[in-house]
Amino acid sequence: MKTEVLVPNLPESVADATLITWHKQVGEPVQRDENLVDLETDKVVLEVPAPDNGVLEKVLQQNGATVTSGDLLAVINIDKSATPSEDTIDQATEESPAQALSPAVRRLILEHELDSNKIPASGKAGRLTKNDVLDYIKTDVTVSEQATPEPIVTTKTPPPNVVTPGPAPTPATSDSRPEQRVPMTRLRARVAERLIQAQQNSAMLTTFNEVNLKKVIELRRDYKDSFVKKHQVKLGFMSFFIKASIEALKRFPLINASVDQRDIIYHGYYDIGIAVASERGLVVPIIRDADQLDFAGMEKQIAEFGVKAQAGRLSYEDLSGGTFTITNGGVFGSMLSTPILNPPQSAILGMHSIQQRPWVENNDVVVRPIMYLALSYDHQIIDGKEAVQFLVAIKESLEEPSRLLLNI
Predict the structure, then answer these.
(1) What distance in Å separates the CA atoms of residue 105 and residue 310, rounded to the nearest whole number?
(2) Is 216 helix (H, G, I), strand (E, B) or coil?
(3) Up-side HSE of residue 233: CA atoms within 13 Å toward CB?
(4) DSSP state, 363?
(5) What is the value of pTM for the model shown?
(6) Residue 85 has what DSSP assignment?
(7) Is 294 a residue of the active site?
(8) What is the DSSP letter of 118?
(9) Backbone phi and psi for residue 31, each to the nearest 5 degrees, phi listed first
């Protein structure tokens, strides 16, 4: 008896997906609910589990294939034993020497067009680790030394942002000035599309301010140990900024609104997006009903999102919606930036690095931990006055964090 492995139903907003990694090879045993293959969409990587125990008999879609809901991916023979013979293992190993690679290693090799056989392995039993691949990427390896794998996305015509290559360069030029053409991942292409959309469909403007974080830092220092002991999570800066943003959004509801053609949609809830950097690119998971969470609840969700983002396990539900976004370029050392809107939202708050700077208090110049804040907003519906007052409200809450605790 045989059973089919199909592409699961994709959300309405997703037309298709790209097959990026098979975790099993033909002839290998599979267990029910074991992940067989990863499919990449413009938001997340979907795992397709085995529907039953058996042996993978046939694979109909290879890495790089574009698939849609209901497409046949593979066939499993459930009559065969799920325990492979030594001959089957040897045959599968001979056919696919990369089968022992972990999903993270496979993804790195695919994205950087590497030949796994040329990378020195330091893992147990000669397995290739993620650090092995990262170390190899850092070395000076020319394109001529690499094997060319199948492209991640197959298209009949080149995308408009890719220049069709001209005549091949001479060997001397190729050796001295190496180049490597790598197709965008679906996530990167989608991010690029949304950034262009934001600039074309909104009258984007940015206003700036600075905030003295002395009292926030002191509060974290005084209670960080007891906070971890009670809640099993660290007290970070982001929860303070989320709380301060929510209080400001309540005072200026237009900042929490969105534009739909010629209508303004006011949201009576606060779903806050937190921009997170992952191996696949920038993603924005959503903390839903953030106004109903305390500091510990927010920190736990942020920590969970961070783990899921690095593991590529964020779901569509995690990334869908949102009424306001906060992005923190300060973790990478950014002093100042102009964040781009996350459509259809009307505003985004940018955090930056904390620096010791001169500050005037009671006519005396002192040194304080200062952060520059940036608020980008859609000038179609938000006037400069409201944007400035909103940012000032955030500044006031952060400089007197007791306001957040007492809700005043």
Answers:
(1) 13
(2) helix
(3) 18
(4) T
(5) 0.64
(6) -
(7) no
(8) G
(9) -110, 150
Contact 303, 232 (CB under 8 A): no
Please state, in angstroms and as integers, the Cα–Cα distance from residue 165 to each residue in 136, 153, 159, 169, 186, following that order: 27, 17, 13, 10, 21
What distance in Å separates the CA atoms of residue 400 and residue 216, rounded to the nearest whole number?
A: 8
Specify the amino acid at residue 92.
A
Arch. (CATH architecture) of 2-145: Beta Barrel (2.40)
Q: Which amino acid is at 300?
A: K
Task: Confirm whether 2-145 and 187-406 share one CATH topology.
Answer: no
The model's pLDDT over 100-138, given as tens digits with 9 standing for 90+, comes to 566 567 767 766 767 777 788 877 667 777 777 777 776
Report whether CATH 3.30.559.10 matches the domain 187-406: yes
Taking alpha carbons only, the member of 222, 272, 219 closest to residue 397 is 219
Give the model confidence (pLDDT) of 246-267 as tens digits.
999 999 999 999 988 889 999 9
Q: What Cα–Cα distance (Å) separates residue 249 from each residue in 228, 267, 323?
A: 29, 10, 10
By residue count, the chain amounts to: 408
Q: What is the pLDDT of residues 36-75, one digit of tens each?
A: 888 887 767 788 888 889 888 889 888 888 888 888 999 9
Residue 51 DSSP code: S
- DSSP summary character for residue 362: T
End-to-end CA distance of the chain: 67
Structural contact between residues 257 and 266, judged by C-beta atoms closer than 8 angstroms? yes
Distances (CA, A) of 194 to 46, 161, 188, 341, 344: 21, 15, 10, 9, 10
The answer to whether the peptide bond before residue 178 is cis (omega within 30 degrees of 0) is: no
Contact at 8 Å (CB) between 203 and 378?
yes
- Write the single-letter amino acid at 301: Q
Domain-wise residue ranges, the chain: 2-145, 187-406
Q: 206: closest CA among 399, 391, 330?
A: 391
> Does 379 qualify as catalytic in the annotation?
yes
Which one-letter amino acid corresponds to residue 271?
D
Structure letter (DSSP) for residue 330: G
Place of tokens 């520059």: 372
Which residues, in sequence order, are CB contacts of 152 under 8 Å at separation 6+?
18, 20, 40, 63, 64, 110, 111, 183, 185
Q: Which whole-number Å values give the CA distances from 403 to 174, 238, 246, 394, 399, in the listed order? A: 62, 16, 12, 11, 9
Considering the candidates 79, 90, 135, 383, report the single residue annotated as catalytic.
Answer: 383
Based on its alpha-carbon atoms, the radius of gyration of the chain, rounded to whole angstroms, reads 25
Which residue out of 79, 175, 222, 379 is catalytically annotated? 379
Q: What is the 3-state secondary structure (H, E, C) of 154-210?
A: CCCCCCCCCCCCCCCCCHHHHHHCCCCCCCCCHHHHHHHHHHHHHHHHCCEEEEEEE
